[in-house]
Amino acid sequence: MTDLHLPLDRAAGRLSAQIAAGFRAAVRSGRLTAGTRLPSSRDLARDLGVSRGVVVTAYEQLIAEGFLLARRGDGTRVAPLARSDGTARSDGTGGTGGTGGAARSGGAGGTRDAAGSGGAARRGATGGPDDAPGPVPAYDLWPGHPDLSAFPRERWLAAARAALRVLPREELGYPDPAGALALRAELAGYLGRVRAAHADPGRLVIMNGVAQGLSGVVRVLAAAGHRTLAVEDPTSDRQLPMLAAAGVRLVRVPVDGQGLDVAALERTGARAVLVTPAHQYPTGVVLSPARRAALIAWARDVNGIVIEDDYDAEFRYDREPVGCLQGVDPDRVVLLGSVSKSLAPALRLGWVVAPPALAEGLRVHRSHHDLGTAVLEQHTLATLIESGAYDRHLRTMRRRYRARRDALAAALVEHLPGATVHGVSAGIHLYVDLPPGTDEAAVVARAADAGVRVTGARPMWSPARAAAARPALVLGYAGLSESRLARAAELLGRAVTQGARG
Ligand SMILES: Cc1ncc(COP(=O)(O)O)c(C=O)c1O
Fold it and tell me: What confidence score (pLDDT) does residue 96 get?
């Protein structure tokens, strides 16, 4: 214990995570206010009786998340954007009025490749922008899918059985459109623990995936007067028609090596923006601490709202995942996530963590549109999380995906000289620049002929920037073993060099 009141449970391990959590809680409760100077890592380590490296790790994590600022000669201080509960005011729609934050809840297999018959790989029946059935490709590197062969069938069945056995009869009626309380309570605890989110059941709405969450949030914002939504450039082209159908005009904002260009966002005049800060889709860059701070400052200046798509944040391999932006300003940021990357897209289970007024707007929206999400699946997921089986599954998958990412990146270096892999070691896809002058569409077509299904990056760029963007591929690696990824990279290399010769 120190005068900072950072309780440590040495038996629980991960001391740096405990220290970081203690600081976040202190900032949120107002015990630590913006500008407060923190002890040096050496002093705090001595006070807490831990090694200095433990404190340095915690400080680095909090700096990356935007809670702390470190300046040469000025030590480490609480960042101005880190706002405590009860001081923020927002109606959750980027309008005026409303109340501030609710209290934080303390709430709580083997793998086989889906190898097909080989031959032409136009489209598999595994989802994607074009859902027409087609031959199953020998090497499916379409991005967006986890390893479907690793779905924890037995654990899911056990959780479903356990949940159904004790489910009260009334729960089989029409559900709360915001979702089953049991799942919202479990997720509040999980997201607080794993994503440093500021979540409680009153802020959570269960949705049928991030896609439905986005569509619902944007519709509620449009009804509250938002006319324009800023989206990243490049972005998931699959989402664009859905967002446009929600009744807003879309404006594109460039992404560079630090993530979204916030100065360019300011020039758009939009008051709502959709971002992927933890792992930009598709480039894989992480929003830098300075940009995080600038984005929150922008939201406050324009009385706006940031929609944070946290689609694959469970998977960071080189370090602890950076906590979500929503944890920094829960009244300006709406967090969306789902089990599509952690378990399976087919479950269509996701969540929105929103300021209370927006969460209520979303609940009403669902009561007007579809009466809520299937209840048995919600209770099954709640049981899976509560039993610890969900965390165990994620740990297994993290190891597997890391090995696959490393294998693919190494094979690309070997077989595609002149290509550059972008982004941090995270997620389940890679963004790889092809040598300048390569015909991206021709590479995709030649790869398909060789049985390798990939997508080019061009459809993900705005028409205005696509011409200047380097040819590139977005490769999903979750579903293939290391050896098959190496073979796929070899075939891709040939698809590129054939074009260079031809
Ligand atoms: C960036 C991004 N966000 C969200 C989604 C959709 O997720 P969900 O299945 O939860 O609707 C995807 C799907 O691939 C995605 O790539």
Answer: 33
pLDDT at 367 over 70: yes
Rounded to whole angstroms, the Cα distance separating 184 from 360 reads 14
Answer CATH for 139-146+392-501 from 3.30.470.30, 3.40.630.30, 3.90.1150.10, 3.40.50.1010: 3.90.1150.10
- Atom of ligand 1 at shortest range from CA of 276: 1
pTM assigned to the model: 0.82
Ligand 1 center to 295 CA (angstroms):
22
Domain with CATH 3.90.1150.10 in the chain: 139-146+392-501
Mutational pocket test of ligand 1: of 126, 240, 281, 373, the residue with most ligand atoms within 8 Å of the beta carbon:
281
Peptide bond into 435 cis (omega under 30): no
Structure token pair of residue 169: 């009869």
Average pLDDT along the chain: 88
Q: Distance from the CA of 287 to the center of ligand 1, in angstroms?
A: 18
Tell which wins on pLDDT, 217 or 85: 217
Ligand 1 centroid from CA 311, angstroms: 6
Fold of 168-387: Aspartate Aminotransferase; domain 2 (3.40.640)
Query: Taking the CA of residue 165 as centre, how many other CA atoms within 13 Å lie in the half-sphere pointing to its CB?
Result: 7
Q: Which fold has domain 10-78?
A: Arc Repressor Mutant, subunit A (1.10.10)
Specify whether the CB–CB gap between 424 and 285 falls below 8 A. Answer: yes
Determine the pLDDT at residue 34. 84
